[in-house]
Design brief:
Distance between the termini: 56 Å
Strand order of the largest sheet: 9-13-18-23-27-31-28-24-19-14
Strand content: 35-45%
Low-confidence stretches: 1-44, 431-592
Structural class: mainly beta
Number of helices: 8
Number of strands: 56
Largest sheet: 10 strands, parallel, barrel
Helix content: 10-25%
Radius of gyration: 27 Å
Shape: elongated
């Protein structure tokens, strides 16, 4: 009987799949025979797994490393439903001892629900077969792997093709909300990815921070080669070292990449790019930061080579680029479409160097810019070079028909916005950009030792729940204090409370501390608060601007401040007349 992707429909509400797809036709036998088969499988599988019958309503339960090993041992189960019930450590399996799930003869076609659990120390070392990953090969439009994180993997494919941490070959199917944290993946032949070796399906809401290395062609932080769709993903690889077609997100792109970014140190020989090495597909609403290096050519901060139908729209690069020849701030060699893009990173090389594009067809570049000051380059094969101050003016871009928030002359998609004294940013970046939060009132209370600041958040921003177990707490201005607790919803008044000793509050006089930092970054739609001691905000990012506390009224004297506080009772003093004002500005740069 034919069926729609009922499993995908279930996933969409949990994992955020953006569309459903028609599944293939599957035939079952007579009901009586089918019932016998199902019951038989259920009884035998119960011993292999931690429970369940492998159906959508009753998935096989995976509770330990032996259960994971059992999946790969029985190809008859590779079209079933699984659910991870606990974090699992696979360190007991070394070499080729782990049973990879799915191969070219019998790919995985089922559903694996990670249930927000972790798989730790997945290790595999082999050079005698291709399709290496926790899942070797996945091939079904209804196949789904979702909601899991792999920590500290160590995978070495040797001299084979299609190597990834999670999936070797995603021929067809969906990988949703899956992440790789740290670790290493290696290969000395072809198609290497920090998450998926080869992608022909959908990768959505995923990330990888593992390193990649090897004498390999087609290597990328998320996938080595993409013929499917990658959306809402990022790569923050500490290092990517490969030979050719090397990219921070994808080594080569023949499909679609959107709403994604890379923060990597990407190094290679030929055709190296901060996001994609070789692009023959569609890329839009993406950006890169970090460093990009090539020992040969071409190399670009965003794409190494954009050719044969490749299209790049509404994207930018802040990456610093260095190579021998054909070195571009955005694209090294361009023979196709670039529209509404810009670059700001430094660009250096020996021959054919361009601030935006180094070599190619200038007529294919439209409404695009580069910063002639930060790049150190006054020329480009296409695009317009401008000084920094003009690159940070909205009308520079709206005059070129860029669609910005707050204007409708260039459209209503609201693709870009520009913070004060900054370059344009993409709408989906949200909290990765400078922001200002200003308190309406600042009060001081003696009993209970509280200082309160009331902040109003910009529309769309949320402060995450903060408790004593989180490192991102307001814990000290150099005085004895207790952690900060914040519980707030979007657009509601934010109350921040930090405890101080009474004596220290009254001894501050007019010289308040100068080191409160509010850190904003994209993490499940939250703003996390922290001090300057918690500098690393996201992989490869750090704060470079901190705020200062200061008195509004220079005539304010310390005795008046302390006299207004009754040390013997719980009193609130409104400091609005001679109070403090917090101006909080957050800016990010690469942490090389």
């Amino acid at each position: 009987m034919s069926r729609m992707c009922d499993s995908l429909a279930q996933v969409k509400g949990i994992g955020g799949l953006e569309d459903s797809r028609m599944c293939g036709t599957r035939i079952s036998g007579l009901w009586g025979i089918a019932l016998i088969v199902i019951v038989g499988c259920s009884l035998s599988a119960y011993g292999k797994y931690g429970g369940g019958s492998g159906t959508p309503e009753d998935p096989y339960q995976i509770r330990d490393a032996n259960h994971m090993q059992a999946i790969g041992a029985d190809a008859n189960d590779w079209d079933k439903h699984f659910k991870l019930m606990a974090d699992i450590d696979l360190s007991s399996f070394t070499g080729t001892s782990f049973n990879i799930i799915g191969n070219s003869r019998t790919p995985f076609t089922g559903i694996f629900h990670g249930n927000d659990h972790e798989i730790i120390h997945f290790t595999y070392l082999s050079d005698d077969k291709s399709d290496i990953g926790l899942f070797g090969r996945v091939d079904d439009p209804c196949a789904v792997i979702k909601d899991m994180t792999l920590f500290y993997p160590d995978v070495d494919g040797g001299f084979v093709s299609f190597v990834g941490i999670l999936v070797g070959v995603l021929e067809n199917g969906n990988v949703v909300n899956c992440h790789v944290q740290k670790g290493m993946v290696k290969n000395d032949y072809a198609v290497l990815g920090g998450l998926v070796g080869y992608n022909g399906g959908l990768i959505q809401g995923c990330s990888s921070t593992c390193s990649l290395s090897g004498s390999v062609s087609w290597a990328g932080g998320i996938t080595g080669a993409n013929r499917g769709t990658i959306t809402d993903c990022f790569s923050a690889a500490p290092q990517i070292h490969a030979v050719s077609e090397v990219g921070g997100l994808a080594g080569a792109n023949y499909g679609t990449i959107r709403n994604s970014y890379s923060v990597c140190a990407t190094h290679g020989g030929y055709t190296v790019g901060g996001l994609v090495g070789e692009n023959r597909g569609l890329i839009f609403n993406c950006y890169t930061v970090g460093t990009v290096r090539a020992s040969a050519q071409p190399v670009g901060g965003f794409v190494g080579e954009n050719i044969y139908g490749g299209q790049i729209y509404n994207s930018y690069s802040n990456a610093n680029v260095k190579g021998r020849k054909i070195v571009g701030g955005l694209v090294g060699e361009n023979r196709s479409t670039i529209t509404n893009c810009y670059s700001t990173g430094s660009v250096s090389g020996d021959y054919r160097v361009g601030g935006l594009v180094a070599y190619g067809y200038p007529q294919m570049v439209t409404n695009s810019f580069w910063d002639i000051e930060t790049s150190g380059q006054a020329t480009s094969v296409g695009g317009t070079g401008l000084p920094t101050d003009q690159m940070q003016m909205m009308n520079t871009f709206t005059d070129a028909s860029w669609d910005f928030m707050g204007e409708t002359a260039n459209g209503i998609e609201d693709i870009w916005f520009i913070p004060q004294q900054d370059y344009p940013h993409l709408w989906w970046e949200g909290m990765n950009v400078p922001m200002k939060l200003t308190p309406r009132i600042l009060n001081c209370r003696s009993q209970g030792n509280w200082v309160k600041a009331h902040l109003t958040l910009p529309e769309g921003f949320t402060v995450a729940d903060v408790d004593s177990n989180r490192p991102a707490v307001l814990h000290s201005f150099g005085f004895q204090s207790t952690p900060l607790y914040v519980f707030v919803n979007v657009n509601e008044l934010v109350e921040i409370e930090a405890a101080f000793e009474r004596e220290e509050v009254c001894s501050l006089a007019g010289n308040w501390p100068e080191a409160l930092t509010v850190a904003g970054f994209l993490a499940d739609g939250n703003i996390f608060l922290g001090t300057s001691t918690v500098r690393m905000i996201a992989p490869g990012m750090k704060l470079i601007e901190e705020l200062a506390w200061y008195w509004l009224n220079a005539d304010c004297v310390q005795p008046d401040f302390c006299n207004d506080i009754d040390m013997n009772r719980d009193s609130i003093v409104n400091l609005l007349d001679y109070a403090l004002l917090m101006n909080i500005e957050v800016e990010f740069v690469t942490d090389e």
